[in-house]
């Protein structure tokens, strides 16, 4: 239909009326409560945070699509991800949910803020539309002065986002790419959209080769150790092999 005949909410909800963008388990609140009570990480984990029991009940408002994605994420050890949205030109990074629950906007960085800012910048600076000197505002938010990246919660709070869930429940670092001002481009415009994003997508995927990698082995048997917890000084978010 194109943007001319489609409102911004077209296709946002599933057949069951669930907004998948807010449908993942809220692990942020449990982590922040534990931090406030000085329980992290000796009594409450700072990573691989378990899914709350209420979320697993049969009558919980969880879409089958969401359950399928969570199952997929638990079966494969993803380390890098991006979800693609339309309607703006900006890359957002976690946290997506404000730490002060009643605030609609609040800078809420993760323990890996530097890494997330780097990942967002890699995409934004190589995206032809975002990097264009002739770039104009999509709507009223001026993301250009921030380098076309922003902390998700500092834009608008999104409880139950996939980005926050990925970071807190798995080893995966995930960002959101708002990749076009036009939420519903016509088919004839898709080649241009592809050219705008092709190099960004490739460069973003290449970031899996950054950082430390290897195998954790038993010093006596030389056998690999599963689920070894890796901690980095000064970063209150561990990862596992």
Automatic annotation (TrEMBL):
Quote the Gene3D superfamilies the UniProt record gives: Carboxypeptidase-like, regulatory domain, Zn peptidases
Q: Which PANTHER family does the record cross-reference, listed alphabetically?
A: CARBOXYPEPTIDASE X1-RELATED, PROTEASE M14 CARBOXYPEPTIDASE
| Keyword Metal-binding (UniProt) | yes
Q: Which GO terms describe its cellular component?
A: extracellular space
Peptidase M14 domain location? 1-208
User: Could you identify this protein by its name?
Assistant: CPXM1 carboxypeptidase
What family does this belong to? Answer: Belongs to the peptidase M14 family.
One biological process GO term for this chain? proteolysis
| CC cofactor | Zn(2+)
Q: Which keywords does UniProt give here? A: Carboxypeptidase, Hydrolase, Metal-binding, Metalloprotease, Protease, Zinc
Highest lineage ranks of the organism? Eukaryota, Metazoa, Chordata, Craniata, Vertebrata
Give the encoding gene's name.
Cpxm1
Q: What residues form the catalytic site here? A: 178
SMART domains xrefs: Zn_pept
Q: Which organism is it from?
A: Thinocorus orbignyianus
| Molecular function terms from GO | metallocarboxypeptidase activity; zinc ion binding
């Amino acid at each position: 239909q194109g943007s001319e005949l489609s409102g911004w909410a077209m296709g946002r909800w599933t057949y069951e009326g669930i907004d998948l963008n807010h449908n993942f388990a809220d692990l942020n609140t449990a982590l922040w409560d534990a931090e406030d009570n000085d329980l992290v990480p000796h009594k409450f984990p700072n990573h691989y945070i378990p899914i709350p029991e209420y979320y697993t009940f049969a009558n919980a408002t969880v879409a089958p699509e969401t359950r399928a994605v969570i199952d997929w994420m638990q079966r494969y050890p993803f380390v890098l991800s991006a979800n693609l949205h339309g309607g703006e030109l900006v890359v957002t990074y976690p946290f997506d949910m404000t730490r002060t629950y009643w605030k609609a906007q609040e800078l809420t960085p993760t323990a890996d803020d530097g890494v997330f800012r780097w990942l967002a910048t890699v995409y934004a600076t190589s995206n032809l539309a975002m990097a264009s000197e002739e770039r104009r505002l999509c709507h009223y938010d001026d993301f250009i002065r921030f380098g076309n990246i922003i902390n998700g919660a500092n834009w608008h709070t999104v409880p139950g986002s996939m980005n926050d869930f990925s970071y807190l429940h798995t080893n995966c670092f995930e960002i959101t790419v708002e990749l076009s001002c036009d939420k519903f481009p016509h088919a004839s415009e898709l080649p241009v959209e592809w050219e705008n994003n092709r190099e960004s997508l490739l460069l973003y995927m290449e970031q899996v080769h950054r950082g430390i990698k290897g195998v954790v082995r038993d010093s006596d048997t030389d056998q690999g150790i599963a689920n070894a917890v890796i901690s980095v000084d000064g970063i209150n978010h561990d990862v596992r092999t």
